[in-house]
Amino acid sequence: MAPAKNHKKKSSLKSSVSSSSIDRGPKRRFQNRLLKWYGEFGRDLPWRRTSDPYRILVSEVMLQQTQVDRVVPKYHEFLGKYPTLLDLAAAKPDDVRKAWYPLGYNVRPYRLHSIACEAVEKYGSTIPRDPAQLQSMKGIGRYTAGAVRSFAFNEDAPILDTNVMRVLHRVFLGNGDPKKKTSRLWAMSEELIPKGKGYDFNQALMDFGAVVCTARKPYCLFCPMRDFCQAFPVEIK
Ligand code: SF4
C-alpha cells in the first residue's frame, strides 16, 4: 500500500487535470523528463531509420498485435520481398499472407495489401497524410493514422495505444482502467505533444510504456516521473 504521505500528495495533485487540460507544471515536467529519458534510453528500431510512409505503415500494422522482438526480423524479410507500395499492391493476397507468416492474425496481411491497392488506385501510389483519408482505409484506425502522420510526415499528431494509455492514465489520473477514459486520454495525448517534437515525443511515450511503465512490473522506484505520478508506487500483484 502507498504510505499516507503519498496519498496526501496525490489528492493535492488530482486537480492537475481538468477535463482534457493538464496544469503547466506537471505537463512540462512530463515532457522534459520523457524526452530526456528517450535521449538516453530510447530503443534503436529499424523503422526509426526511415521516413518512408510505406515502411512506417508496414511496421505499424505488424506491431498492432505482435511484440517488437518478433516484428524486427519479419519487417526486414517482408520489405525484402515487397520493397515498395507498388510491389505490395501487385502481389497476390495469398502470397502476402504467406510472407506474413508466422506473425499471426491473418487479417492483417490482407488488409495491408488492400491498403496498398487503394493507395495505388486513389492516391497516386502514395500513402495519404490526411487523417480522414488514412482512417477511411480499412485496417487504419485512429492510432495507426496518428503513427503514420507522426513518424512518416513529422506531424504533431497524437497516438494512443495500450502502452500510451497506461502511462498517461497512471501519471495524470492514477490507478484505474484506462479503457474507461479513452476520449480523455486522446485529448491528453494531443495536448502533451511539445510543438514540433511529435516524432520524438510519441516514440518516447511508446518506449517508456514498453520499458519503464510496464503493465505487470513497472519500475516505479527508478522512474523519472515518480515525484508527480498519480499512481506511484504501483503495487505489483
Ligand atoms: S512512477 Fe511507476 S506508474 Fe508512475 S510513470 Fe513511473 S513507472 Fe509508471
Automatic annotation (TrEMBL):
Keywords recorded for this protein, A-Z: DNA damage, DNA repair, Glycosidase, Hydrolase, Iron, Iron-sulfur, Metal-binding
Q: Where is the composition biased (Basic residues)?
A: 1-12
Q: Where is this region: Disordered?
A: 1-25
Instruction: List the Gene3D superfamilies.
Output: Helix-hairpin-Helix base-excision DNA repair enzymes (C-terminal) (1.10.1670.10), Hypothetical protein, domain 2 (1.10.340.30)
Q: Where is the HhH-GPD domain?
A: 62-211
Keyword tRNA-binding assigned to the entry: answer is no
Q: Which domain of life is it from?
A: Bacteria
Query: What cofactor(s) does the depicted protein rely on?
Result: [4Fe-4S] cluster
Any single Pfam family the record assigns to this protein: HhH-GPD
Query: InterPro entries given for it?
Result: DNA_glycosylase, Endonuclease3_FeS-loop_motif, HhH-GPD_domain, HhH_base_excis_C, MIG/MutY
Asked if the Swiss-Prot or TrEMBL record annotates the protein with the keyword Metal-binding, the reply is: yes
Protein task? Adenine glycosylase active on G-A mispairs. MutY also corrects error-prone DNA synthesis past GO lesions which are due to the oxidatively damaged form of guanine: 7,8-dihydro-8-oxoguanine (8-oxo-dGTP).
Q: What is this protein called?
A: A/G-specific adenine glycosylase
The organism named in the record is Candidatus Nitronereus thalassa
Its lineage opens with: Bacteria, Pseudomonadati, Nitrospirota, Nitrospiria, Nitrospirales
